[in-house]
Amino acid sequence: MHDERLVETMRQLSKSLTPRALDETLRNITTAAVELLPEVEYASITVLHDDQRLETVAPTHDVLLPLDAAQYELREGPCYEAAASTVHIISPDLAADQRFPRYSSIAVASGIKAQAGLRLFQAPSANGALNLYSGMVGAFEDFDSLAALFAHQSAMAIEYAREIDNLEQALRTRSTIGQAIGIVMERYKLTEQRAFAFLARLSQTSNIKLREVAEEVVDQVERQSNAL
Fold first, then answer.
1. Which of 16, 136, 141, 216 could bond to 32 as cystine, CB 3.0-4.6 Å?
2. Residues 163-203: pLDDT tens digits?
3. pTM, 2 dp
């Protein structure tokens, strides 16, 4: 029966976590966690940035925002631990969990009795963890196989989404630079090659990325058009 549940969860995950843009993928992960994982009532994702800033994304309910914020402030709790140090962490009974003496009272007062944190990704610029919440004591006790499966499938979806986002960013950059070249060509009566060289020289002398120089050129024209 347990194996059948694993197979069914994998099938549902494959349907839910198809490659999309990153923001949508993260929302799909937390939604799927609530719909597909047993005993999960709410879910969110914690991102730990390289400057140690912690951020909650894709929460399934606003009740999670103060709970996640409390863990960030206290540097304590499954959501913080999974993003900062421990790959997977499960607390089936927060009230009795001596690892989180300050946070557990806050969670229990909000109706959260059990919690799990699953590391989803680890990168030079950020770590990400899935936070799972339940109002039932004893939740997540028999959770290892499903948790590992879900974390694996989610990590794959996030990696695909990053590739999609990078591709979209590259296409947007190319389009913006093309627009800027056209503006410079028209404004200064230059060939395409010389217009590109002009933008590249601006980038070098100002120590600003070519993409940002192009964006400023395009934005300036749009501001002038709107002012007319």
1. 16
2. 767 767 776 788 888 888 899 998 899 888 888 888 888 88
3. 0.69
Residue 110 pLDDT: 96
β-sheet bridge partners, residue 126? 49
Residue found under tokens 């607390």: 91
Token digits for 16?
A: 């839910």
CA 38, 39, 43: angle at the middle one, nearest 5?
Answer: 95
Which residues touch 225 (CB under 8 Å, ≥6 apart)?
A: none
Q: Tokens standing for 147?
A: 């948790």
- Judged by DSSP in three states, 117 sits in strand
Q: Which of 20, 55, 25, 27 is nearest to 43 (CA)?
A: 27
